[in-house]
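Aim 2, interim progress. The first record below pairs a target sequence with its structure tokens.
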Amino acid sequence: MKFVKDTITLDELRMLAKNMFGNLVKAVVDIEKEIMVIDGDLHSDEEAMLLEDGSKQENLWGINIYPDMDENTRVEFDSMINLRPAFKNLSRGVDDPKIQEKIVKIVNKLIQK
């Protein structure tokens, strides 16, 4: 697993995807700190890494990144860690469009072409 606090290249994401799941990289994004952890077997492992680093649960969202897709479609909102009724998220996705938009902006800022 790897913290992404500055940037990561698309080529590096492609390599990570190829070595793990083929066409995607799992990630957990902290929407407050605007960082993410990538390349874990499970979103929950990445989430734990961020929590240990001081992130708050309500700011963490699990996604999948498809490096070969364009920046408008490369993020998939699907993770068991997103299922949090206490935070008014009732699905594996990200129910709030504003949070989705913030996640996409953070991911695109962290990915260098």
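The second target in this work package is listed in the same format:
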Amino acid sequence: MPSSLDTDSVLNPRLRPHRFGLGLILLSLLVLLTACDDTATPTASASVNPGIRVTINGPTPTPIPTSTPVPTLAARVNGSDITLEKFNVELRRYVQSQPNAPAFDSADGQQLAAQLKDTVLDMMIEQALIAQEAARDNVVITEKQIDQELSVTKDKAGGDSKFQAWLMANQQTEQDAREQIRLDLLTNALTAKVLVQLPRTAEYVHAFHIVVATEAEAEQIQAQLNNGTNFEALAASKSIDESTRADGGDLDWFSRGAGSVLWTEVEDAAFALQPSDISPIIQSPIGFHIMKLVARENRPLTEADTAYLQQNALRQWMERLKTTAKIERMI
């Protein structure tokens, strides 16, 4: 049976508490070890003589389980922390801002929070990226600018008292509002630098089309067009595109890739034509098209096309920021 002996006490007489002879100590130890046969239950310790203790190894104690540390961060963006506390505050505000939102602490509120969790964290990550990009570009927002915007915001709310009530209802302080204004102004400054590079005009084409369900039908219509049948008349009687059929298949003016509702293959076919040309048969997810080009020219971007190009440019800009960033998600 394993045992240990305080050998310093035995071999160094100055360390012995009592002056027993070495032979007596060894005899006592022999008696003790003989008593501990293989069937005996191990004891934690046994005293041989005062000041001499023999320890017998027992079962290894079960370790006390430690609790898993509670995370304190929601994310880290290029080394900048987004705390879990701030994330939870933003999540609560975002949930409560939804139309007909349930109470945040209710079962429905928690279910909605779980659905919106990733949306809110993505928003906070993008805000951190914008602030970091502004710092790199030396874009600075002054306290005076924030004061001016805050004054406008209070006026829109109906005065300072109503604004303070709104802050309280949304669990915000005026300092929170100032930080949000700062971020909004930084965002406006940076996006303006992105959007100023966009074109103001584009090449537009004006085209008509006929859409049918089968290629065989399209071939019959193509033969009729080759024989001089009026394109608009065929579109009005044969086309399955209800949005243009009443107008003889008129697609109006559209530019390439600027929010057009056309499929890429149809758009490409239109821009490959010259005025008065009729296209070969083009297949798309809704059927088989034949197109006629009326005109093409450079024109100012429409309001819809401008909005589409701006949204697309800003989306690509943010994707570039994310691609080059080190983003760590903890939740």
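Residues 202-300 form a domain with the Chitinase A; domain 3 fold (CATH 3.10.50.40). This observation will shape the mutagenesis plan for the next reporting period.
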